[in-house]
Design a protein that fits this description.
The structure holds two protein chains of two kinds.
Chain A lengths: L6 H43 L1
Chain B lengths: L1 H23 L14 H29 L2 H32 L8 H21 L4 H29 L14 H4 L2 H33 L3
Helix pairs in contact in B: 1-7, 2-3, 2-5, 2-7, 3-4, 3-5, 3-7, 4-5
Chain lengths: ~50, ~220
C-alpha cells in the first residue's frame, strides 16, 4: 500500500472524521454528567428542606 | 471524570488504529475478494459489538427478573436497541460486501438468513415493548421475551450455520474457520478493531441509558 499513490491522504481524512465524531460523543457525555450532577444537587437540597 | 472514562478513550483509540492500520497494511492476495478482505476489520466488528450488546441485555433481563429494579430494565432494553443498531450496520455492510464478491446483495446463505431472522426477533422485542403501557408489566414481559430472543440468536447465528451443508461464510458449513486462515498482520488489526467497537457500543449504551434515566427519573 505504501508508495506514491497518495492513499495516505484518504486515511488522514477518515481519521479526522472519526476523531471528530469521537469528540462529539465525548462532549455529549460531559454534558450528561453535568445534568446528572445538577439533578443530584437539586434532589439533595429538596431533602434538606424537609 | 477522566479516571472513569479511560475505556471510552481506549475504544476510540482502538477503532482509530483499525481505520489507519486496516487501510495501510499489506493484505494477502486472495481470489474473488482481493482488497475487500479489509472489510473484515469493519464489518465483522459490527457483529461482535452486536453480540456483546445482546448478551449484556440478556444478563440485565435476568437481573431484572430477580430483583425487579427499573434500572435493570432500562439497561436491558437499551442494550437491545444498541444491539439492533449494530446488527443493522452489520447487515448493510455485509450486503454491500456480498454484492461485490458473491455477486448479489442477498445470497441464500444460512448465516445471512439466520442474521435476518434474529434481527426480526429483536425488532419484535421493540414492538412488544411499544404495545404495553403498564411499566412494570412491560419490563417483566419483555425480560422474559428477551431470554427467548437470545436463544433464537444463538441457534440462528451460532449453531445452524455451522451445521448447514454449505455456506459462503468462513467457519460455517464445513469451511475452515476465519481465524485459522487469518495471517498475523490481519489479526493485529482485527482483534483491536473488534474490542474497540465493543467498547464504543458499551459507551453508546451507557449514554442511552443515562439519558433515559434522567427523563424517567430513575436512579
Amino acid at each position: 500500500m505504501e508508495g506514491s499513490d497518495k492513499f495516505f491522504v484518504v486515511v488522514i481524512v477518515m481519521s479526522i472524521i472519526f476523531t471528530g465524531l469521537g469528540t462529539y460523543l465525548f462532549l455529549i457525555d460531559r454534558k450528561l454528567s453535568r445534568i446528572e450532577k445538577k439533578l443530584k444537587e437539586f434532589r439533595g437540597s429538596k431533602n434538606n428542606d424537609k | 471524570m477522566i479516571k472513569s472514562m479511560w475505556w471510552k478513550f481506549l475504544g476510540l483509540a482502538l477503532v482509530l488504529y483499525s481505520i489507519i492500520a486496516g487501510l495501510l497494511i499489506d493484505v494477502p492476495a486472495l481470489p474473488v475478494i482481493h482488497q475487500t478482505i479489509r472489510n473484515l476489520f469493519y464489518h465483522v466488528s459490527m457483529w461482535f459489538a452486536m453480540f456483546v450488546m445482546l448478551g449484556t441485555s440478556l444478563v440485565y433481563s435476568i437481573r431484572y427478573l430477580s430483583g425487579f429494579r427499573m434500572r435493570d430494565d432500562l439497561m436491558a432494553s437499551g442494550a437491545v436497541y444498541t444491539g439492533i443498531f449494530f446488527g443493522l450496520m452489520g447487515l448493510m455492510t455485509g450486503m454491500i460486501w456480498a454484492k461485490f464478491t458473491w455477486g448479489d446483495f442477498w445470497t441464500n446463505d444460512p448465516q445471512l438468513n439466520g442474521a435476518a431472522v434474529s434481527m426480526m426477533a429483536y425488532l419484535a422485542y421493540a414492538v412488544l415493548r411499544g404495545s404495553i403501557d403498564e411499566v412494570a408489566m412491560r419490563a417483566r414481559i419483555s425480560a422474559v421475551y428477551n431470554i427467548f430472543a437470545f436463544m433464537l440468536l444463538v441457534i440462528f447465528l451460532g449453531v445452524l450455520p455451522r451445521l448447514a451443508d454449505s455456506s459462503l461464510h468462513p467457519g460455517k458449513g464445513g469451511n475452515t474457520s476465519t481465524m485459522e486462515g487469518l495471517d498475523m498482520t490481519m489479526r493485529m488489526v482485527f482483534y483491536p478493531a473488534a474490542l474497540g467497537w465493543i467498547l464504543i457500543a458499551c459507551w453508546l449504551l451507557q449514554l442511552h441509558t443515562r439519558r433515559r434515566a434522567l427523563i424517567q427519573g430513575i436512579h
